[in-house]
Amino acid sequence: MRRTVSFPAAERAPQEGRQPEPLRTEFGFELPRGYVDESGTVHRTGVMRLATARDELVPLRDDRVRENSAYLSVVLISRVVTRIGTVDDIHPGVIEDLFASDLAFLQDFYRRINAEGHTRAAVTCPSCQEEFAVDLAGGRLGES
Predict the structure, then answer these.
(1) Nearest to 28 by CA among 102, 137, 112, 142
(2) Distance separating alpha carbons of residues 136 and 93, to the nearest angstrom
(3) How far apart, in whole angstroms, are the C-alpha atoms of residue 38 and residue 76?
(4) Greater confidence, 120 or 63?
(5) Residues 7, 81: contact at Cβ < 8 Å?
(6) Cβ–Cβ under 8 Å, residues 74 and 92
(7) What is the pLDDT of residues 18-66, one digit of tens each?
(8) Are 64 and 92 in contact, with CB atoms under 8 Å apart?
(9) Contact indicator for 51, 80 with CB cutoff of 8 Å
(10) Are 112 and 121 in contact (CB under 8 A)?
(11) Helix (H) or strand (E) holding 105
(12) Half-sphere exposure of 10 toward its Cβ, with a 13 Å CA cutoff?
C-alpha cells in the first residue's frame, strides 16, 4: 500500500528561485477582553513565542502543578507569553488574573502556533455557508 504525505508550505523544499520562508518564533495576538493591571489599565495586545521542550518540561516539576494538574496551563502560558500590552514581566500571577475567556484564547493560540505553525483558522459563514480563513492573532472586526 502506498501512502501520500503532504507537507505544509513552510516545510516543502524551496522551488527553484524561491527562498524558503523564515521561521517565525514570535506571534502577536489580541486578547478578547484584556488584562487589567493594578492601576486599572486594560492591556489587549501581546506577543507569544514558540515553546521549547524546556517550556513544556519545567512546569511538571512545579509544586503548584503537582498539587493541581489544571495549573499546568497557567505556568506554561506564563513561560511563552513575553508581553501583554506594556507588561513584560509575565509570571503565573499575571496569567491567573486574566479573564477565563482570555486564558482559553491563549491556550488555543498556544496550540495553534506550536502544533499547526500558524494562527489561521478555517471558518464558515453561518448565513451564506462560504468558507474562508481568519487570523486568530487579532485585529479589528472585518479585517483578516
Answers:
(1) 137
(2) 25
(3) 23
(4) 63
(5) no
(6) yes
(7) 777 778 899 999 999 999 999 999 999 999 999 999 999 999 999 999 9
(8) yes
(9) yes
(10) yes
(11) helix 100-111
(12) 7
